[in-house]
Design brief:
This protein is 31% helix and 23% strand. It is of the alpha/beta class. It folds into two domains: 162 residues, Stage V sporulation protein AD (Peroxisomal Thiolase, Chain A, domain 1), CATH 3.40.47; 155 residues, 3-Layer(aba) Sandwich (Peroxisomal Thiolase, Chain A, domain 1), CATH 3.40.47.40. The strands form three sheets. Strands 1, 2, 3, 4, 5, 6, 8, 9, 10, 11, 13 and 16 form a twelve-stranded mixed beta sheet that branches. Strand 10, helix 6 and strand 11 form a beta-alpha-beta unit. Helix 5 runs parallel beside helix 6.
Length: 343
């Protein structure tokens, strides 16, 4: 059912069948370590270069999500996946052996929300019984592409974030498969698709400021479309605004009549301990929201600690070309309504 200007409420929600996360050594030293399925000490993942390492991480997360759900890859109709690299090379090389029809996605750090939203639409419409949503990032591949080679040893601004080395994979399935009940109680019951918001930010070392207005726009649109207020959700969780972006978002929301203090969380502030780990403003990258979803959010919902969550991965849609040509940095945020259902 269409809701308002940009949202959908699903008549046939897509249930979360299984999930898995794989992350690097630094992420394994953070607050979410116990929930991460696999923490690799070798950030090369046994490969010859950083890009191959990210591909290997994607393949490992996908295989593990399928294994945990006792699902064969032939039972998955479509794959929705993406990363931060040009031409989505981490995804194209990482998932080729799965032999699952692929929709390659680029929403920058919002990609996990985009993947889950499109996958849930597909399941709800009856176009697929099962889909797989994946998003990944790697600190070294992101630094190499967007900032400086690691050997350069450049000084980082305090507003800068630390790209997460990690991948999250989620299998979504229809409510009933061959007469069986869903394997989990968590379902995607609705989505709000974000629009591009560009307020003229040009500082590539302050992604939080670029993305916060988009998060504000999408969250407000969700509340308007569904006719609810922030108390409708146990948590409203953004992707990777970090400390700077979170303050901007909370100020924007309060000016719009929505006080999210005590109800908002940001994956970039959850995945690292900023007091003990040198990550400046917090975590970022496609893997930030994806790993936090699989290592923290879904387990809490499965245990019944949270009943309803608005998951809002955020993305800064810049490239090295656009930045070097002096363009501003548009932001986008996609919202996914996650609910614990009684089945």
């Amino acid at each position: 059912m269409q809701m308002g200007k940009a949202s959908l409420r699903f008549e046939h929600p897509a249930f979360v069948a299984s999930w898995a996360s794989v992350a690097g050594k630094k992420e394994g030293q953070g607050p979410l370590a116990a929930g991460i399925d696999v923490t690799e000490q070798d950030e090369m993942f046994g490969m010859e270069n950083w890009e191959q390492a990210e591909s290997a991480m994607q393949k490992q997360a996908a295989d593990l999500a399928l294994e945990k759900g006792n699902i064969h890859r032939r039972e998955v109709r479509y794959l929705f996946a993406g990363d931060l690299l040009g031409q989505l090379i981490a995804t194209s090389f990482g998932t080729v052996d799965l032999e699952i029809p692929l929709f390659g996605l680029y929403g920058a750090c919002s990609t996990m929300g985009e993947a889950m939203g499109l996958g849930a639409m597909c399941v709800n419409a009856g176009y697929a019984d099962r889909v797989l949503a994946i998003a990944s990032s790697h600190f070294a591949t992101a630094e190499k592409q967007f900032r400086f080679p690691l050997g350069y040893g450049n000084q980082r601004a305090q507003s800068a974030s630390w790209t997460v080395t990690g991948c999250g994979a989620v299998v979504l399935e229809c409510g009933k498969k061959a007469g069986n009940l869903p394997t989990s109680h968590i379902a995607v019951t609705g989505i709000t698709t974000g629009k591009l918001v560009d307020m003229g930010t040009r500082d590539s070392m302050n992604m939080g400021a670029a993305m916060a207005p988009a998060a504000w726009n999408t969250i407000c649109q969700n509340l308007e479309d569904f006719g609810v207020d922030v108390s409708y959700y146990d948590r409203i969780i953004t992707g990777d605004l970090g400390a700077v972006g979170q303050k901007v978002l909370l100020d924007f929301m309060k000016s719009s009549g929505h006080d999210m203090a005590g109800r908002h969380m940001d994956c970039g502030l959850e995945i690292y301990d900023r007091g003990e780990q040198d990550v400046h403003a917090g975590g970022s990258g496609c893997g930030c929201a994806a790993v936090t979803l699989c290592a923290h959010i879904l387990p809490k919902m499965q245990r019944g600690e949270w009943k309803r969550v608005l998951f809002v991965p955020t993305g800064a849609l810049l490239s090295t070309v656009s930045y070097n040509e002096g363009e501003s940095i548009p932001g986008i945020a996609h919202a996914v309504v996650l609910e614990r259902m009684e089945v």
